[in-house]
Amino acid sequence: MPESWKDKLKSQLEKDYYKSLNSFYCQELKSGHTIYPPTNQIFTAFYHCPFDKVSVVIVGQDPYHGPKQAHGMAFSVQKGVPPPPSLQNMFKELTEDPKLEFKRPNHGCLTRWADQGVLLLNTCLTVRSGQANSHQGRGWEKFTDAVISELNKNHKGLVFLLWGKPAEKKCQSVDQKKHFVLKTTHPSPLSAHRGFLGCRHFSQCNDLLAKMGKPTIDWQI
């Protein structure tokens, strides 16, 4: 955990739920399970997006559970790994937004977004290989609730991009008098056509940032 975040979250690291989560994670590794992302990449999103630099929050659910995909940022995959369907739909939405000059990239690594202040936060930060949702209910949800709570409390004018009911529920405590919340369906192929495609969230986000006098996001990666 980088220092800018540890200062805000250190109390969480001392709580019983987090100690239990840590024990569970260590036991998973000792039992021989492959866990994604690798241990040294669990907090990648936090390293690339320091606490005081956050301007946009995108909430995901579970890390990708396939080989070499997850590397600690929601929706992002490492270079050399084909972008999964949800990310492909995100690129489709960006490409079709008339306010943006986005060219579909040949990779799915979203590090450049994070470096500009986009926190790509999954609800759970680890998962067992090939087993979606396998680390749900172990404590990560409480930890990421604390992340959102600290952002809500200590920032003003954040833009939350919430795609799907789980993301909306995750951020229901966000003060919409202080922050901006854009909601639509998840970019998954199962739901993208019911609201996500055509939502223009990426350009709306930049419009909001510009009105506040904040730097806009260059979505090109």
TrEMBL record:
Residues covered by the Uracil-DNA glycosylase-like domain: 47-209
Listed GO cellular component terms?
Answer: mitochondrion; nucleus
The protein's GO terms of the molecular function aspect are: uracil DNA N-glycosylase activity
Q: Mind listing the UniProt keywords for this protein, alphabetically?
A: DNA damage, DNA repair, Hydrolase, Mitochondrion, Nucleus
Compartments, record wording: Mitochondrion; Nucleus
- EC supergroup of this enzyme: hydrolase
* Reactions the enzyme catalyzes: Hydrolyzes single-stranded DNA or mismatched double-stranded DNA and polynucleotides, releasing free uracil
Name the record gives this protein:
Uracil-DNA glycosylase
Q: What does the record give as EC number?
A: 3.2.2.27
What does this protein do, in the record's words?
Excises uracil residues from the DNA which can arise as a result of misincorporation of dUMP residues by DNA polymerase or due to deamination of cytosine.
**GO biological process terms held by the UniProt record:** base-excision repair, AP site formation via deaminated base removal
Under the heading SMART domains, the entry gives: UDG, UreE_C
Q: Which domain of life is it from?
A: Eukaryota
Catalytic site: 62 (proton acceptor)
Report the PANTHER family cross-referenced here: URACIL-DNA GLYCOSYLASE
Q: Which CDD domains match?
A: UDG-F1-like
**Of which family is this protein a member?**
Belongs to the uracil-DNA glycosylase (UDG) superfamily. UNG family.
Pfam families from the entry? UDG (PF03167)
